[in-house]
């Protein structure tokens, strides 16, 4: 879930809120209680965590060898 930054246009109070992307934006300022909160444009911060990432899982592993196919011996068709 992303962290959104808000600023009140009336009292300049700033806050951060952890919200789902599908949540409605906040509108009421918790400090002055005016409906004048505006979502600020800010850089997104995230952290790659867990397995499945190139640096932790795939960088040092060597590709798997293909299994050898059994060679078929030519049949001798002499009469």
TrEMBL record:
Q: Which Pfam families match?
A: Zn_ribbon_8
Q: Which SMART domains does UniProt cross-reference here?
A: CxxC_CXXC_SSSS
Question: Which segments show compositional bias classed as Basic and acidic residues?
Answer: 57-72
Cite the residue spans of the region called Disordered.
57-79
InterPro entries listed in its UniProt record: Regulatory_FmdB_Zinc_ribbon
Q: Where would I find the Putative regulatory protein FmdB zinc ribbon domain in this sequence?
A: 1-42
Q: Which PANTHER family match?
A: CONSERVED SERINE RICH PROTEIN, REGULATORY PROTEIN, FMDB FAMILY
Question: What's the name of the protein?
Answer: Putative FmdB family regulatory protein
């Amino acid at each position: 879930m992303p962290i959104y930054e808000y600023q009140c246009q009336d009292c300049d109070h700033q806050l951060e809120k952890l919200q789902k992307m599908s949540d409605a934006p906040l509108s009421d300022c918790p400090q002055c209680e005016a409906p004048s909160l505006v979502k600020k444009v800010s850089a997104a911060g995230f952290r790659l965590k867990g397995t499945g990432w190139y640096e932790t899982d795939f960088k040092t592993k060597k590709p798997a060898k293909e299994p050898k196919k059994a060679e078929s011996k030519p049949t001798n068709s002499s009469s």
